[in-house]
């Protein structure tokens, strides 16, 4: 097979043969594996041909080769880091053309005549190394110059901290906090899509407070009100009673409501429009009745009359009615 | 500021946090290996062997997980949490049920949310132990593998195409620019046997002398080998895919203008000289005292001269 047939991705050391087809899929597993290995060897050889022809540099461990970037695009695992916005100082420095310069870590200290660290423990020009502060004419009597110096330093540190937080806040707004910084309230994991939580609005708080206040047995009627607390917006239940009297407009609303419910119930079974069993039953019953009525009308009437006897009892005693049916009347009498 | 700022207190914690931070160039993905409530012997073996193959860059969980159902909504929450906790962006989740025996879900995450999923069933599994070969050939942990994909199914069928990408992402190891040619010792061979079945095997590589620079390759099967039957799969969301494929604009190479390279001459540059604007330059003797007529005459004659000169140049 020609090499051009293979798609080779040298960055991933991958070769793909899109044209290969088995003449017939081998029945046994060993044969299949053998076939695949053969084909795989060809592909790997094709990759190796390209790989070993790349310019290489010798290394004690073996020849090193610079791989080209992969052609098969695979997704990233995390979003791209966002560039953080410039701090206030960076903006100022850019405006003024101030450039960063490296400072030596160790500086010559003239006080002691030795080399010392610029920052940290045992540093150059440390205030602690100055045991005596000369009094000036402007100094107020009674003040402690050492305490004053310390307080000033504290203030400076606080100012810096304030600025640092401001810069971080600006970065957080863009979503580009440095990865070692987390906002404590969220303590969100670092994924690059960090966002500060939304502030709860005043209205939402009021709603929740109102709900909590009315969540007592008395609906919050006897609770002490806090200063400035407003009454809940909906004191009563959301209930509406419609007029029962029939009419047009508002009057018909009640009817509509009930109809709606009924329709819903009925429409549940609407897919069985014809209940065959029921229909057949009804038909049978009707037929039965008809036949009976045609066959023995008198008897049927007699049976029909039976329950009607009681109201007729008094009249029967008089013997005015039921002359045509003595037996049945007797029965009723015996009762 | 209402929110308190929290930073790691120890150097170690800080380094760990930096490791997890998003990077401009990503080198590789960690793999999380876990299983559901039920598992089978085959599946256990598959998961351990995948872990063996990826040992330098994988986390294996051994407990049962009853809340993980990657394909169902709500079933991925704990998986995403584990991905966040272990900083893994590929997971291999094994489950075994009557409906889907020996089930393996391979998925990737983007920003610790599920990106895509492929579900495969494992059949005809043959473990590493069942292969006999010269142990000297056994691949080293973390070596960069070759891949061989065979069959047109990987090009035509969506599921297999997807599976190919996922397998490549799972096993490719660290993304490197410099490669030691002496360290090449493993190959993954994947063959599309049918429309939904892939024969997957892992081979060691033996380099033999061939007389040329390129050695002759020989594959020795070392296992594991198995058939992967594609069941369900979920492709990534189109917008998410676009976002995840973005590369840093800082890394894009700027086009080098006016420089070309030649095999014989080497580097060749072109230079464009801007117009020198000779006519506009101030003349050296422009004395104040010269009368206007004369000055004008002089200027005229000079300009004439210049023009004639220019013409000459042009003609040349």
Automatic annotation (TrEMBL), chain A:
<feature type="compositionally biased region" description="Low complexity">
    <location>
        <begin position="318"/>
        <end position="335"/>
    </location>
</feature>
<keyword id="KW-0690">Ribosome biogenesis</keyword>
<dbReference type="GO" id="GO:0005634">
    <property type="term" value="C:nucleus"/>
</dbReference>
<feature type="region of interest" description="Disordered">
    <location>
        <begin position="211"/>
        <end position="239"/>
    </location>
</feature>
<dbReference type="GO" id="GO:0042254">
    <property type="term" value="P:ribosome biogenesis"/>
</dbReference>
<feature type="region of interest" description="Disordered">
    <location>
        <begin position="284"/>
        <end position="335"/>
    </location>
</feature>
<comment type="function">
    <text>Involved in ribosomal large subunit assembly.</text>
</comment>
<feature type="compositionally biased region" description="Basic and acidic residues">
    <location>
        <begin position="221"/>
        <end position="232"/>
    </location>
</feature>
<feature type="region of interest" description="Disordered">
    <location>
        <begin position="54"/>
        <end position="88"/>
    </location>
</feature>
<comment type="similarity">
    <text>Belongs to the RRS1 family.</text>
</comment>
<keyword id="KW-0539">Nucleus</keyword>
<protein>
    <recommendedName>
        <fullName>Ribosome biogenesis regulatory protein</fullName>
    </recommendedName>
</protein>
<feature type="compositionally biased region" description="Basic and acidic residues">
    <location>
        <begin position="146"/>
        <end position="160"/>
    </location>
</feature>
<feature type="compositionally biased region" description="Low complexity">
    <location>
        <begin position="211"/>
        <end position="220"/>
    </location>
</feature>
<feature type="compositionally biased region" description="Basic residues">
    <location>
        <begin position="306"/>
        <end position="317"/>
    </location>
</feature>
<feature type="region of interest" description="Disordered">
    <location>
        <begin position="136"/>
        <end position="162"/>
    </location>
</feature>
<dbReference type="Pfam" id="PF04939">
    <property type="entry name" value="RRS1"/>
</dbReference>
<dbReference type="InterPro" id="IPR007023">
    <property type="entry name" value="Ribosom_reg"/>
</dbReference>
TrEMBL record, chain B:
<comment type="similarity">
    <text>Belongs to the RPF2 family.</text>
</comment>
<dbReference type="InterPro" id="IPR007109">
    <property type="entry name" value="Brix"/>
</dbReference>
<feature type="domain" description="Brix">
    <location>
        <begin position="29"/>
        <end position="239"/>
    </location>
</feature>
<feature type="region of interest" description="Disordered">
    <location>
        <begin position="279"/>
        <end position="316"/>
    </location>
</feature>
<dbReference type="GO" id="GO:0005730">
    <property type="term" value="C:nucleolus"/>
</dbReference>
<feature type="compositionally biased region" description="Basic and acidic residues">
    <location>
        <begin position="293"/>
        <end position="316"/>
    </location>
</feature>
<dbReference type="Pfam" id="PF04427">
    <property type="entry name" value="Brix"/>
</dbReference>
<feature type="region of interest" description="Disordered">
    <location>
        <begin position="240"/>
        <end position="260"/>
    </location>
</feature>
<dbReference type="InterPro" id="IPR039770">
    <property type="entry name" value="Rpf2"/>
</dbReference>
<keyword id="KW-0539">Nucleus</keyword>
<protein>
    <recommendedName>
        <fullName>Ribosome production factor 2 homolog</fullName>
    </recommendedName>
</protein>
<dbReference type="GO" id="GO:0019843">
    <property type="term" value="F:rRNA binding"/>
</dbReference>
